[in-house]
Amino acid sequence: MKADYIIRGGRLFDPDKKIDFVGDLAVRSGKIIKIDKEISEDSGHVLDASGCLVLPGLIDIHAHIYEDGVWNGMPADLAGIPLGVTAFLDAGSSGVSNYRDLLNKCRTNRTHCRIMLNVSACGIIMPLQFSEPIDPALWNIALFDEAFRENGEMITGLKLRMNKAVVKDLGLEPLKKTVELAERYGVRVIVHVTDAAVSMSELADCLRTGDVFCHVFHGTGNTILAPDGTIEEGIMRARERGVLFDVGSGRGNFSLAVAKQALSQGFLPDTISSDVTLQNWNNPIAGNLIYIMSKFLALGMSLEDVVSRVTSAPAKQFGIQGLGTLAEGTPADLSILKLEDKPQSFADKFGTVVNGKQLFVPKATMIGGQLLYRSADTQLLA
Amino acid sequence: MNCDLLLKNGRLFNPKRGIDRKASMAVVDGKLRFVDEPTVAASTIDVDNNLVLPGLIDIHTHLNYLGAASGMPADLPNIPFGVTASLDAGSAGVANVRSLAKRLENTEIKSKFMLNVSSTGIIMANQFPESVDPSVWDIGLFDEVFAEYKDRIPALKIRISKNVVGDLGLEPLKKTLDLAERYGVRVCVHTTNPPCSMSKVAMTLRPGDILTHMYHGSGQTCLEDGKVAKGFWEARKRGVLFDTACGKGNLSLTVAKEAIAQGFLPDTISTDLNIYNWNHPFVYGLPAMMSKFVALGMRLEDVVDCVTEAAAVQWGEEDNMGCLCEGTCADITVLRIVERPMHYEDKFGNTLEGGMALIPLLTVIDGKVKYRSMELHP
Predict the structure, then answer these.
(1) Do A78 and B106 touch (CB under 8 A)?
(2) Which of B79, B375, B377 minimises the CB distance to A78?
(3) What are the extents of the domains in chain A?
């Protein structure tokens, strides 16, 4: 039983499955076929992962990857693969008028891609110039029906931005109508909550189990913190109900102060995501998914908690079976990272700085058993 | 001065132009600017005394992703490895070249393609060779393709390995040269296991044509009685160009070492990158290939020239690409030199030891940062 690849000597780490040991991982025909302390079978290639973490492929559930179709669209493969990301969920870059173009791009990417459909027909096409119209009075339900009938397997949910500039005087109506529409197709709602006209609790109260509240630690307008610094009651109620809280940090949708305060009260995010766009990709404030992971280590989260929030937890929202784990028999999506001891200052747009001691550095990325990135100092033996 | 991007604390390295100095490099409106005065930059990256090179140009790759068995996505194996322009070496012919052209429209990297004289291009070479019999060529279709894509096709490509040409010998190559005259383009000829001596192949070519896989080790090689073929020296004098296109199987370390020791260096260094050899230890990427040629006895200056200045000539934009000149396009590659033992092998079982690796840190295309290693994170 010859393997295509053996990943040798790394720390295999999948906290959700309680996998944590230094050993080998064998890949054949696109699948993880074996994990063990030592695997001595023949292999086409051996990749030396000693000193590295071998993680399930990282899943970034808030990204903007509609390259060339919206002004901030980032090429998915380039944004993710050299940085350890193996799956991207586009967070509503497109709507019923243009989503098929995005899907065509998604289908030729090496990265696994799924999308959330914006309730606005144009998606988030040029938000710095004008907000996407989200008035439900404009919606053509037949087009939504067609989208979910023809491409439902690619669409994980409906996206809506609820900031003042988008909602104008429509209040909570667009969100309520979006939730109704999501019921019709049995999908999630994901809501962007920065600079909202209402409190975070009021928004969270509208959400159902499994819906996603994104940019949870933003610092613009009303935040999740009550005036006394505690987490708002409505947010706690929503968490109890099973509403999911995602980071979607980006350049502007993340406050280190809010995050620090929330984490100190034990309010951890359900998922960590990047909100990567063409403009913030590799930006010093936004960084990229693994840079944001390093930032959460600096904020005091444990390695285990950080890793589960970019692997097993987002896998549940992604809709492809078997992602986000190192279990035998699942797709060989792997993110091989080194956690280097390196002092690092993390800043946000509000001028807050948090100092960390460690930085994740990408070493190799595999999707479906194909090695798609390998750093120059990572050895591969023929 | 105001600029869009400032790379500070670099070692600007463009040996052909006599540039090797510690300095900053600025970008304004997608063009290079040298900086002497204090500069206000929209974005500044401290490149920490690493090599700042003109963007690397790989003139032999296979980019017909999903359109041919060996096609590699254009951006992924290149941009994170410092390559800013990639030339497809005849993956497609008149039957399928439009699909390739359209696909390459959607990439971040700069690309061009050679047109294969076979209508199918190199579509499944490990199962069957493409037909190169000139008697089936439809010149009308070639005319159409050149009318549409002339500025993107710097050369016609043909493979003349014995299994491709069968009993046609050098006839398909000669007809390809005629066709190239018609369109005013180069010919690039793949030469492994040739139907005649390598001397004869080289002597058949015109000034500016490209003999690729120059150091291959299959059948008759460039070494004739242990010496670099006379025809190679004579062809070089006439201006025929010699390219490496190493691939997994098209480079013999022994042949290359001997030829380089005798002073026959390549004009260009390229990878022959495709989906099967990318990431393979024999190939990996263009910077790894550059380190390998240093190990084979070349000076770093010459190696850099082979993937920048000289490659830009074949690309057809030597006035705008491949150099660090005021006002030329801001394609920039930053590499770190790491001194460490390197071990190379080829498919013939030859081995080679080297002492340095080139690590890609930053890739800029037309002034836009397309790859930035975590090492350069602020």
Answers:
(1) no
(2) B79
(3) 3-55+328-337+361-381, 57-318
Measured CA to CA in angstroms, residue B20 lies from B10, B52, B279 at distances of: 10, 9, 31
* Band (A130; pLDDT cuts 50, 70, 90): confident
Q: Which residue out of B277, B338, B351, B374 would a mutagenesis test of the A interface target, given it has the greatest number of A Cβ atoms within 10 Å? A: B374
What CATH number does the domain containing B8 carry?
A: 2.30.40.10
Q: Do A78 and B284 touch (CB under 8 A)?
A: no
- ipTM for the complex? 0.77
- Answer yes or no: CATH 3.40.50.10320 is held by domain A57-318: no
At A144-157, the pLDDT tens digits run: 999 999 999 999 99
Interface of A with B (CB under 8 A): 67-68, 75, 77-78, 81-83, 105, 108, 110, 282, 284, 287, 290-291, 359, 361-362, 371-374, 376-377, 380-382
pLDDT digits (tens, 9 = 90+) for A206-236: 999 999 999 999 999 999 999 999 999 999 9
d(Cα B11, Cα B19) in Å, to the nearest integer? Answer: 9
**Residues B45 and B61 both lie in one domain:** no
Helices (H), chain A: 76-80, 99-108, 141-151, 164-167, 173-185, 200-205, 233-241, 256-264, 289-298, 303-308, 312-318
pLDDT for position B378: 67
pTM over 0.90: no
